[in-house]
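Why do we care about 3D structure at all? Because function follows from shape, and shape follows, mostly, from sequence. That is the central idea of this module. The next example makes it concrete: a single protein chain, its amino acid sequence, and then its structure expressed as C-alpha cells.
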Amino acid sequence: MDGLEAVEIKLSGLERTCRIDSEFYRKENLIVLDVLKKKKHAPLTDSFSVSDGNHMSISDDFCQDGIRYYRGADIYNFFIEEASPICISTESFNLPVMKRSHLKKTTFLCQLSAR
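And the structure:
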C-alpha cells in the first residue's frame, strides 16, 4: 500500500450528511476536525441565517446588467470570485421565491471586533 492510506469510520461516526467519499475522510481532514472539535465553537446558524438558495431555473434570466447574482461556482477559498459576474433582472430578484437567496448585511463582524 505504498502511497495509499486507509481510514476506518464507523457508520455511527459519519457526519450529518452520511458522506462516505474517501476525500472527506482523508487523514489530514480528520486531524483538522479533531482540532476544531477541541476549540470553543458554535454553528454558523447561531450567527447567520443560512439558506441553500433557490431551486428554480434562474439561468434563463442571466444578463449583463442588473442585480448581482452569486452562485456556488463564484465561491473560491471562502472568497467571492468576481472574474465573470452574472446578474439577474430586478423583476427576478423581487420574486417571492428569490427572497431566500438575498444576501443581507450582518452585524456579526462588528460583534467579533467588539470581543
